[in-house]
Amino acid sequence: MKNVHELKHPLIEHKLAILRDKKTGTKEFRELIEEIASFLCYEALSDAKLEEVEIETPICKMKTGKLNENKYAFIPILRAGMGMLDGVISVMPNAKIGHIGMYRDEETFEPVNYFFKVPKDIEKREVIVIDPMLATGGSAIDAIDLLKSKGVTKIKFLSIISAPEGLKAVTKKHPDVTIYTAHIDDHLNENKYIVPGLGDAGDRIYGTK
Ligand code: PRP
Ligand code: URA
């Protein structure tokens, strides 16, 4: 799928194996979500434009490139997206942060937006939306719709696990958004959970079930 980048790396598969395991406890689950998020962010910045700067090493002056972190914002989709925040901040500590609150209605599986707070100059920034699960794609589509309605034009989406159905839906509605995912799983079950997946990401991060 165009605009979808899957991290194909033995280390990622290794970490996902522990993450998916139902025996993995909350502490380790949180740590792995953070770690994988930092790898996704690293990958998503591979096309970042650098600004030329002159610095002086202990040996000599040199011209080199630096990232202008003021041009970026991270937007976690609540709740589960918060689990990825420290991971992406470890890669780019000075980016601004916004929040979009979404939950999936348990019967219709449709996303419901309950919170929206983003930096004032959001339309001037490249926005990196983070959410560990992209299932039907409904939450991602609505979050991107909201950001575009505020004038945002550059959006990337990071997910730990994605379903092919959701990726198809998001890329169809928002072909300009690039998605970085650690793994594309097999399918959605009758409850719209990703198979094999990892269960409910929010519940596993916060220990709510
Ligand atoms: C999960 C997940 C995504 C959404 C994905 O959140 O974190 O936001 O479901 O599903 P979709 O692609 O079908 O929309 P959930 O609604 O469980 O809320 P939570 O993060 O508060 O647990
Ligand atoms: N949300 C989750 O947390 N897990 C899924 O498999 C689907 C949606």
Task: Report on this structure.
This protein has 209 residues and is an alpha/beta fold. It has one domain: Rossmann fold, CATH 3.40.50.2020. It has six helices and 13 strands. The chain has helices spanning 10-20, 26-44, 82-91, 138-149, 164-173, 201-206; strands at residues 4-6, 51-56, 61-66, 72-78, 96-97, 99-104, 111-117, 126-130, 133-134, 154-162, 178-184, 187-188, 194-195. Strands 1, 4, 5, 6, 7, 8, 9, 10 and 11 form a nine-stranded mixed beta sheet that branches. The protein has a two-stranded antiparallel ribbon with strand order 2-3. Strands 12-13 form a two-stranded antiparallel sheet. Helix 1 (10-20) runs antiparallel to helix 2 and helix 2 crosses helix 3. The longest helix has 19 residues, at 26-44. The mean pLDDT is 97. Bound molecules: 1-O-pyrophosphono-5-O-phosphono-alpha-D-ribofuranose (PRP) and uracil. Uracil binds next to helix 6. 1-O-pyrophosphono-5-O-phosphono-alpha-D-ribofuranose binds at residues 77, 79-80, 102-104, 109, 111, 131-140, 166, 192, 200-202.
Percent of residues in β-strands: 25-35%
Work out the count of structural domains: 1
> Taking Cα atoms only, what radius of gyration do you get, to the nearest Å?
17 Å
Helix content: 25-40%
Mean residue pLDDT? 97
Q: Would you tell me the structural class of the helices and strands?
A: alpha/beta
Q: List unreliable stretches of 5+ residues.
A: none
* CATH architecture descriptor name: 3-Layer(aba) Sandwich
- Straight-line N-to-C gap: 34 Å
CATH topology: Rossmann fold
Structural shape? globular
The distinct bound ligands, ions and cofactors come out as: 1-O-pyrophosphono-5-O-phosphono-alpha-D-ribofuranose, uracil
- Give the biggest beta sheet: 9 strands, mixed
* Tally of individual helices: 6
- Strands, count: 13
Order of helix and strand elements from N to C terminus: EHHEEEHEEEEEHEHEEEH
Q: What is the CATH class name?
A: Alpha Beta
